[in-house]
Fold:
Amino acid sequence: METNNNNSFEPKVVAFVCNWCTYAGADLTGTSRIKYAPNVKIIRFPCTGRIDYMLLMKAFANGADGIIVSGCHPNDCHYTSGNFHARRRWMIFRNLCDFIGMDMNRVVFSWVSAAEGAKWAEIVNTTVDTIRQLGPATSFQKLIKNSVFEEVGNE
Amino acid sequence: MNNIQQKTKELLESGACTLIIGYEKGTGGKARPVFVRKAEHAAKLIFDESCDQNIAGYLYRQEIKNESKKAIVANNHTLKSIVELASENQIHEGDFMVLAFTAEGEIIELKSFEEIEKHVATLYHGLNDEDKATMQKIEAMTMEERWGFWENEFSKCIKCYACRASCPMCYCPTCTVEINQPQWIPVPSHTLGNLEWHVMRAMHLAGRCITCGQCAKSCPLDLPIHLLTYKVALDSEQYFDSVAGTSVCANNVLATFKTEDHENFIR
Amino acid sequence: MARIGVFICHCGENISATVDCEKVAKVASEFPGVAVSVDYKYMCSDPGQNLVKEAIIEHKLTGVVVSACSPRMHEPTFRNACAEAGLNPFLCEMANIREHCSWVHEKGDATTQKAIDIVRTLVEKVKRNEALAPIYVPISKTAVVIGGGVAGIQAALDIADAGHKVVMVEREPSIGGHMSQLSETFPTLDCSQCILTPRMVDVARHPNITLYTYAEIESVDGSIGNFNVKIRLKSKSLDEKVCTGCGACIQKCPVKKIPSEFEQGLGMRTAIYVPFPQAVPNKPVIDRKNCTYYIKGKCKVCEIVCPTKAIRFDQEDSFVEVQAGALLLATGFDVLKTSAFPEYGYGKYKDVIDGLQFERLASASGPTKGEIRRPSDGQIPKKIVFIACAGSRDPAKGREYCSKICCMYTAKHAMLYKHKVHEGTPYIFYMDIRATGKMYEEFVRRAIEEDEVKYIRGRVSQVYEKNGKLIVRGVDTLLMGQPVEIEADMVVLATAGIANQGSEELAQKLHVSYDKHKFFSEAHPKLKPVETNTAGIFLAGACQSTKDIPETVAAASGAAAKVVGLFSNDMLKRDPLIAIVKKSPPPVYSSCTGCFMCIQVCPYQAIDKEEIKDRNGNIIKTISHINPGLCQGCGTCVAFCKSKSIDILGYNHDQVYAEVSALLNE
Ligand SMILES: Cc1cc2nc3c(=O)[nH]c(=O)nc-3n(C[C@H](O)[C@H](O)[C@H](O)COP(=O)(O)OP(=O)(O)OC[C@H]3O[C@@H](n4cnc5c(N)ncnc54)[C@H](O)[C@@H]3O)c2cc1C
Ligand code: SF4
Ligand code: SF4
Ligand code: SF4
Ligand code: SF4
Structure:
C-alpha cells in the first residue's frame, strides 16, 4: 500500500498527446537531450480531437496519479480544428470533474508544438513536481481497492 | 382543465387524432402518463401542476412512431425536449400534434417546430429554487467535501438505469454501458464504476439536458444525479452560450467551437 | 492466439547507455502473447531488419513491436520490412524508447522500467491491430476551374499544358476578371489588357480547355477524384455556333443607356452586348432585364439585323454535367462601393469614385479614352484627393484586415494622374504605406520623389460638396494632428477589397470553409495555402484574400501544380487510417442513432447520411456514413459520438483503451 511519504512516492503520469505537435515536440526534447522525470509515459493519438474523456477516467481508474493532455496550439492543428473541439470538451469535462470533487491539479492541459521540446520537458517536470506534492491519488485508489473486492466478491 | 378534455375529445371524435399522449391522475397526488385512443376516455385526461413528468420520450418509441395521427399534451419540459429531439433528428415535423398551454392556462395547438421554439422562448429556463440552492451548497464545499458527498451518493447507485430510461435524451439503441469491447463501464455496481457511469452520462448530455430533473425523480434511491447534467448545462450556457431545447437548428455545444473559446486553463 | 515479436534496439549506445536493453527484452519475452523477444545493436540496419523478417517467418508472428526510435523516424522502414516478410505492414508498431526514454532520462532502473512499460503498452496495442490495405480512389483527370479572372486563366493554362482536360466556368459573358478592367499595372506600369488578352485568347483556343461563360455552378457532389459537377449555362438568347461576332446587333439595339458593369457605371452599353471590345468569347448576350422584347414583348431589332440568324429569344437555361477529379476555385474579389461610406457622401457625390472607376478613367479604352475627366461635368480635375484604407483596417466597420493592394494602386493612380495632368496636384491620405513586394517600395518612392505626389498621414473624417468643390477634411498626424482641409475637384476612395458576391453560397455548395469575411479558407495558413479543407478542391487568387497580380498568378500556378500532381496517378493512394461508422447485424444494423451531430464536427465534411434499406428498398434506418475519400483520420468524430458508433482504424477504441490499462498495470 502506498503511503503519503513523499520521498518514496513516484507519481504515475499518463500523457495523452497528438501525433503532429506534442508527440513531435517530445521527440525534439529527446533529440535535444533535455532531461526530465521518467514518471510520464506517452500514448499517441492522431489528434487531440481523438482523445476521449473516458480514457482520462480510465487512467484514474487504473491508478494514474496524474494526467497530461497536450496537442497543437490553436490554429496549428494538423486537422485545422480538432484541438478547438477538444478544448471545448475539456472545458466542460474539467468543470464536471471539479464539481464531483476530483482534484483538477492532477490534470494538466497544454499546447506543446513540434518546436517546443523545452516546453515539453518543463510541463512534465512541473506536473511531476505538483503531483509529488499532492501525493498519490488516494481518493481513487480507495475506490479501486473496493471495486476489486466487489468484482471478485461478485464472481 | 375541461379545456383539455374538450379539445382531445374533439380531436378523437373528428378522427384528426387516433392517439393522445397525456396525463391522468395517479396515486399519491401524482399524475402519470396515459395513452387515450377513444373519445369517451378523453375525460381521463388532466393537466395541472402535478403533470410535471417529461413525456417527450414517447414520441420516438418504435410502437408509437408508426401511429400516424397522434397528439401529445406537452408541459414545458416536454416542449423543450421536443425541440432538442428535433434538433437531433430523432423526431420530425408533422409526425405529431402538440397541445400546450399558455401562462393563463389556455390550451393551444403548436403547429410547427417554429411555433414550439417561439413558445419555448417565452418560458423560464433556469433551475428551480431548491436545485439552485443545492448547486450552490455543493459549489461552496471544499474539494474533499464534494468528493465525499458524491462518493457517498455514487456508492448507493445500483445501476438500474432508471435515470437513463426516463430521460428523453437517452435514446441510443445501444448505450455505451452495454458495449463490452472495450468494457467502458464495469458491469457490477461499485463506487468507481458508478462514478464513471455518471460522469459519462453527464458528458453525453452536454448541450442536450433540458434540466427537467426527470432522471433524479426516477431514481429509486433518490440520488441527485440531475445536478451533474445541470452542471454541464449551466457551463454550456455560461461559457458557450448554448441552451438545450431552444432551437431546432442549433449545433450541439460540443459539435462546434469558436476560435476565441475560453482557454485560461491550458498551459 | 497472438504471436507477437518484440525487437529491442540498442541504437549503438543511444538507447543502451541508459536503458538495460537485455533486461527489457527478457521481461518482454514473458508478456502474454509474446512469441519472441530479442535485442540487437542496430535494428534499422540490414542485419537488424533481417532479424525481424526471419522471426516473422520462423515464429509465424501476428504482430511486431520494434522498440527503438520515434515512429516518426523509422515506422515506414519497419513496416516495409514486415511487408517484405509477408506480414501486413499495419501489424507493426514502434515503441519509442529513444526520444521518449533513453535520451531524456538518466541511466537507472526507473529508465529501464519506463522502457518496459512502453513496450508492454505497444504489445497490448499491436495485439489489437488489424491488417489494413491502402485505399485506392480512381481519378477522373478533368479539372473544373471556377472563375475566369487572371487566377483561373493561369491555372487553366498550366493544367491544360500539362495534358489534362479543363472545364472553365465563368459567370460573366467574358473571362478576364478585374485585371481586364485595369489601366496600367504596378509596379511596372505596363498595360494590363496587353498582357492579359493574349492569355484569354489562349484559353479559348486551347484544345484541352472547354470554356463556359455566362455559366454558374449548379451543384457539386462526389469527392476527390470523382466530383460530379452540374453547370448551369444561363441563356444568352443566342446560338453561339451560328453567331460570327460581327456586332451588327449591338450597333442597332435601341436600348443604349444601360450603365456598363465593365465601365463601373461610367460608360453605357446596349441590351445585347459584349462587355468590352477584347472580350473572350467575343459574342454578345442579351441582358433580359433590360431588353425591350423581354420587357414589352416587341422589338426584335437584333434578330432582324443579324446576318446569320443567330438570335434565339426562346432559348432556356441548359445544364451540362462534368465528371471532375479536382475543382479549383478562382472566383476573385470585389471592392466596397462608395455608397458604403456615410462620411464620404454615401455615393451621392458623382466625383467621389472608387479605385476601379479610376482605373476605367485612366484606361485608354475607357469611357474618357484615358483622359482623367471627372464624372459630373467632364472637367479635368486640378486637385485630386486619394483616400487609402477606405473601409480596410477599420474594426469599427467590421473589416480589421489590410486589403493589401490599395497602397500600391493608389500610388499608381496618383502617378498616372500626374503623367496625364502635369499641372495637377495629387494628395494621398494614408495610414501606413505598405509596399512590400519586389520593386514596390521603389515604385512608391518614385511617386513621391519624381511625381511629387503629396502624401498626408492621417484619416479623412469628412468629404462634402461646396460650390462645385469637394471639401476634404482630415488631420495630419505627422504634424501633431493638425487639421487639414483640401478643396478638391475629385476624390478617389481606395475602398476595401471584399469577398465576391455569391462566395458564401458557392462555398456551401462545395462544402469548403470560409472566414468571417466570406473569403475562402485555405487548409493550413502556412503549409497548405492553395488547398481547401475539402480534399480535391483548391484555391487560387483573390477569392482567398485580396491579392495583387503577381501573388495571384503564383497562387494559381501553385494550385495548378497540386491538381497536376493529383492527376499524375491513375489512382489516389491513401492511408487507411480513417474513421468508419460501425455496423451490426439486424435488427439494429448500427448503433448510430442518426443524430448527425458528427456531421458538424468533421473538419473535412467527410460525413454524410446513408440509408439502410430492406430487400424491397424500404428505408429501415438512416445513419451516418464516412466517405473514405475525404476522411483525413483526425478522429474528432470518434471521441465525439456518444453512442461510440464511429471508430478509427489504427487508433480504435479497443487499442487505446488497452494502451491505457497496459501502461498503468504492470
Ligand atoms: C482598383 C484596383 C487596381 C488594381 N491594380 C493592380 C495593379 O496595378 N497591379 C496588380 O498586380 N494588381 C492590381 N489589382 C489587383 C488585381 O485586380 C487582382 O490581383 C486580380 O484581379 C485578381 O485576380 P482573380 O482572378 O483572383 O480575381 P478576379 O479578377 O476578381 O476574377 C474572378 C473571376 O471569377 C468570376 N466569378 C466570380 N464568381 C463566380 C462564380 N460564382 N462562378 C463563376 N465565375 C465567377 C468573375 O466574374 C471573374 O471573372 C488592382 C485591383 C483593384 C481593385
Ligand atoms: S436511477 Fe439511480 S440507481 Fe438507477 S442507475 Fe440511475 S442513478 Fe443509479
Ligand atoms: S434533467 Fe435528467 S432527464 Fe431531464 S434532460 Fe437532463 S439528464 Fe435528461
Ligand atoms: S455516428 Fe454517432 S454522432 Fe454520428 S450520427 Fe451516428 S450516433 Fe450521431
Ligand atoms: S476522423 Fe476526422 S476527418 Fe474522419 S470523419 Fe471523423 S472527424 Fe472527419
The pocket of iron/sulfur cluster (ligand 4) is lined by residues C 581, 592-598, 623-624, 641, 643, 645-646 (CB under 6 Å). Residues 1-6 of chain A have pLDDT under 50 and may be disordered. The CA atoms of residues 49 and 86 of chain A lie 5 Å apart. Chain A touches chain B through 41 residues (CB under 8 Å).
